[in-house]
Model the fold of this input.
Amino acid sequence: MKNTSPPTNTQKDVRLSLYYANQCDPKKCSGKKLVKFGLVRQYENIGETPKGAILMDPTSEKALSRADSLKKGIVVLDCSWEHAEEMFPLLEKFDLQKRALPYLLAANPVNFGRPFRLNSAEAFAAALFITGREEQARRVLSKFNWGHSFFELNAEPLADYAAAKNSTEVVEAQSLYIDTDEADTNEEE
Done:
């Protein structure tokens, strides 16, 4: 007998881990909200996060791309932007692959429209989208009333980054958006 049921998506969800540094209001924290909905696992000790996972680190010299393996998952450090520069160096000794997200605009209410100022939920969504997990990325941001805005603001760059084969191509694509944004800023002055 032939199976007539519709095909199912066999792509397994990427494991999402949040290292919570306890530096923000938990009631407003996007990472904590994702934990509450069961989309992310929270750790209060970075040493307990999955070994070999990709750590989203804005100080990394290598951009995230679809060439990166997500078998061990993605880790996001949930800390205040005011303390980010001091927090990321503390993570050097842990067995995590550091990757930076390329140029994207924040859609969250605190940093709306500001480049590179993503909150934890946006960082997870961007990482998932760039690595070919658009459905999971959209599910992550569906928990926020502004979530759709992130995809609208970043539609072109996200598509370009997701199409890039490796980190070098992501950086090349990023240069198109950074140059454009800087030119717009200079014209306004």
